[in-house]
C-alpha cells in the first residue's frame, strides 16, 4: 500500500504538511488537529508546568537512548537538506541513523531511529526499518500507527516495504510493530483528517475527555459548550444527539431520557448522562444518577493514598487515615526505600476491614506484584478489601467536568466549578525533592476520598 499522491489542505491552513505527530494527535483528539491548523493560535494556552516537565523528561529519555546507540544524527535544520543527508547516509549503509528526515509530497516524517537490517533494497543487500522512542511503559496503538506511517514513507525511498518497525519504551525494551498490518488504518486516518479539515473549525466538534484537562485548546472548546462539553458521553452519543437536533443544552435538560432512547437511539446510560449533563452545566453541582455501589465496603474502614510518578513508576509517598484518626504518611526518598515505606504503610492499615482509595492503587497493585512477587498474596488481600471510591462516585453521579482526583470531586460537590488552581504534579514535586509538598498533596487526597465517601453515605439510598 502506498501513501496518497496528494493531501488537500484548506486554503487557510497555517501549515500544509502531514507529520507523524499530526497522525498521533488526530487519534488522541481529532478536533485538536483542526484547531492546530485552522484555529486562532493566540487562544492556545501554554502547557502546564507539570506537562512541560513531562515533555522535558521525554526528550532526556530519548537523548539517553540515542547516545547509547551511537547512531549518526541528522542535524541539518532545513528539511530538504536533512532529507538529502538521510538519503546519503542510507546509501552509504550507515548502521543506524537518528532524527532522519523522510519526505514525500505533503508528508513529512522524522523517525527517532532508522536501523539497518539484512535484505535487499535499492541501496544494496540491506534495508532500513523505523524505530521510535517513547516514554510509556507499554506500547500504544497511536505510537504503532506513527511508526507505520514513517515506514510507508521509507518503503518508497528504499524500494522495499519493511516487514516490521519497533518502539523503544521507557525501560529501554523493544516492542515490534507489525507495520504492514497497520497500513490500511494509516490511510483511513489520512482520509478522515482530510475530510474533517475540509469542513473547517465549525464543522468539527470538541469531544470532552480527560485529554482536555492538559490541552492548550481547552478554553476555546469550553466556550463552544453544547453537547460536546458534557463529560462522560461517547463520541457516537454526541454525534447521535447533534444529528437528532439535540445539540443545545437548554432543550436537552427539559427532556426525559426515554425520549432520547426512542428518538435518537441512545443507550439508556448515555441518555441519562446527556440529560443530567445538560442540567449539571446550569446548576454547577454533581447530580446523582443512581445509587452508589457501596455495599462491598466493610467497616471499620480507612482511607489510603499512594502518590505516583508515572514516568518512572515511582511511588514516593503513601498515606493512610482511619475513620476518625489523623493522617499518617510513609515516605520513600529513593527507589530503594520504597519497599520499606510500603511495608510500614501496610502495617498502618491493620485493623481496618475496608479500605477506600481514589483508583491510583490499581496501578500500584500491578506494579508491585510484578516488582516483588513475594508480596503478591498481601497485595491480593489488600485489593480484596479495597474500594475505588472515586470510581464509584463517577459511576453514580454526573459531574460538571472530568474528575481526576477525589478532592476535585469534593470541590465540585461544594459547588466550586470554576478553574481549580492546578494541583502540583507529583513529578514536579519529586524533581524538586519537595517531600513536604507531596505529603500535603497526599493529605488533601486522603481527605477528598473520605469526604466523597461520607457524602455518598449521607445521601442515603
Ligand atoms: S480541549 Fe479537548 S476537545 Fe478540545 S481540542 Fe483539546 S482535547 Fe480536543
Structure explained in plain terms:
The protein is of the alpha/beta class and 461 residues long. The chain has 3 domains: 18-198, Lambda Exonuclease, Chain A (Alpha-Beta Complex); 225-283, DNA polymerase, domain 1 (Orthogonal Bundle), CATH 1.10.150.20; 301-458, Nucleotidyltransferase, domain 5 (2-Layer Sandwich), CATH 3.30.420. It contains 18 helices and 16 strands. It has helices spanning 20-28, 30-38, 49-69, 79-92, 141-158, 179-198, 218-224, 235-243, 249-253, 257-264, 268-283, 338-348, 361-371, 376-385, 389-396, 406-413, 426-431, 435-458; strands spanning 18-19, 72-73, 96-98, 102-104, 107-109, 113-121, 124-133, 165-168, 174-177, 287-288, 301-309, 314-322, 328-331, 354-357, 386-388, 397-398. The strands form 4 sheets. Strands 2-3-6-7-8-9 form a 6-stranded mixed beta sheet. Strands 13-12-11-14-15 form a 5-stranded mixed beta sheet, sandwiched between helices. The protein has a 3-stranded mixed beta sheet with strand order 1-5-4, sandwiched between helices. Helix 1 (20-28) crosses helix 2 (30-38) and helix 1 (20-28) runs antiparallel to helix 5. The termini are far apart. The mean pLDDT is 91. Bound molecules: iron/sulfur cluster (SF4).
| Number of structural units classed as domains | 3
The largest β sheet comes out as:
6 strands, mixed
CATH architecture of the largest domain, please?
Answer: Alpha-Beta Complex
Arithmetic mean of pLDDT:
91
Basic shape? globular
**SS class:** alpha/beta
Fraction of residues in helix: 40-55%
CATH topology of the largest domain: Lambda Exonuclease, Chain A
**Beta fraction:** 15-25%
What oligomeric state do these chains adopt? single chain
Amino acid at each position: 500500500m502506498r501513501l496518497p499522491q496528494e493531501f488537500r489542505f484548506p486554503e487557510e491552513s497555517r501549515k500544509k504538511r502531514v507529520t507523524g505527530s499530526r497522525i498521533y494527535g488526530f487519534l488522541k483528539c481529532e478536533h485538536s488537529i483542526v484547531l492546530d491548523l485552522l484555529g486562532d493560535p493566540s487562544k492556545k494556552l501554554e502547557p502546564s508546568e507539570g506537562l512541560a516537565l513531562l515533555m522535558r523528561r521525554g526528550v532526556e529519555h530519548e537523548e539517553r537512548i540515542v547516545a547509547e546507540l551511537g547512531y549518526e544524527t541528522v542535524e541539518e535544520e532545513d528539511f530538504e537538506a536533512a532529507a538529502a543527508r538521510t538519503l546519503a547516509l542510507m546509501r552509504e549503509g550507515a548502521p543506524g541513523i537518528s532524527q532522519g528526515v523522510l519526505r514525500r509530497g505533503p508528508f513529512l516524517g522524522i523517525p527517532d531511529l532508522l536501523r539497518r537490517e539484512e535484505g535487499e533494497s535499492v541501496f544494496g543487500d540491506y534495508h532500513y526499518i523505523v524505530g521510535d522512542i517513547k516514554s510509556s511503559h507499554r506500547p500504544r496503538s497511536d505510537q504503532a500507527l506513527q511508526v507505520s506511517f514513517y515506514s510507508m514513507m521509507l518503503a518508497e525511498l528504499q524500494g522495499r516495504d519493511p516487514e516490521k518497525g519497533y518502539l523503544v519504551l521507557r525501560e529501554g525494551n523493544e516492542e515490534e510493530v507489525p507495520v504492514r498490518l497497520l497500513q490500511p488504518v494509516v490511510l483511513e486516518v489520512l482520509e478522515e483528517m482530510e475530510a474533517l479539515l475540509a469542513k473547517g473549525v465549525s464543522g468539527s466538534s470538541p469531544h470532552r475527555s480527560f485529554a482536555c484537562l492538559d490541552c492548550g485548546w481547552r478554553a476555546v472548546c469550553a466556550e463552544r459548550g453544547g453537547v460536546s462539553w458534557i463529560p462522560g458521553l461517547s463520541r457516537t452519543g454526541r454525534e447521535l444527539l447533534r444529528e437528532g437536533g439535540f445539540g443545545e443544552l437548554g432543550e436537552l435538560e427539559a427532556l426525559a431520557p426515554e425520549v432520547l432512547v426512542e428518538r435518537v437511539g441512545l443507550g439508556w446510560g448515555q441518555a441519562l448522562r446527556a440529560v443530567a449533563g445538560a442540567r449539571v452545566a446550569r446548576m454547577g453541582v454533581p447530580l446523582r444518577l443512581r445509587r452508589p455501589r457501596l455495599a462491598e465496603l466493610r467497616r471499620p474502614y480507612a482511607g489510603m493514598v499512594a502518590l505516583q510518578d508515572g514516568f518512572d513508576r515511582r511511588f514516593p509517598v503513601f498515606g493512610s487515615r482511619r475513620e476518625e484518626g489523623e493522617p499518617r504518611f510513609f515516605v520513600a526518598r529513593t527507589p530503594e526505600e520504597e519497599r520499606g515505606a510500603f511495608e510500614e504503610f501496610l502495617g498502618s492499615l491493620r485493623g481496618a476491614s475496608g479500605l477506600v482509595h481514589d483508583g491510583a492503587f490499581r496501578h500500584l497493585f500491578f506494579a508491585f506484584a510484578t516488582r516483588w512477587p513475594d508480596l503478591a498474596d498481601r497485595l491480593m488481600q489488600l485489593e480484596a478489601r479495597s474500594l475505588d471510591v472515586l470510581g464509584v462516585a463517577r459511576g453514580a453521579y454526573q459531574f460538571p467536568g472530568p474528575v481526576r482526583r477525589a478532592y476535585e470531586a469534593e470541590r465540585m460537590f461544594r459547588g466550586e466549578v470554576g478553574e481549580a488552581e492546578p494541583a502540583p504534579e507529583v513529578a514536579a514535586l519529586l524533581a524538586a525533592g519537595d517531600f513536604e509538598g507531596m505529603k500535603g498533596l497526599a493529605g488533601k487526597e486522603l481527605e477528598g476520598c473520605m469526604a466523597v465517601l461520607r457524602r455518598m453515605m449521607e445521601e442515603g439510598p
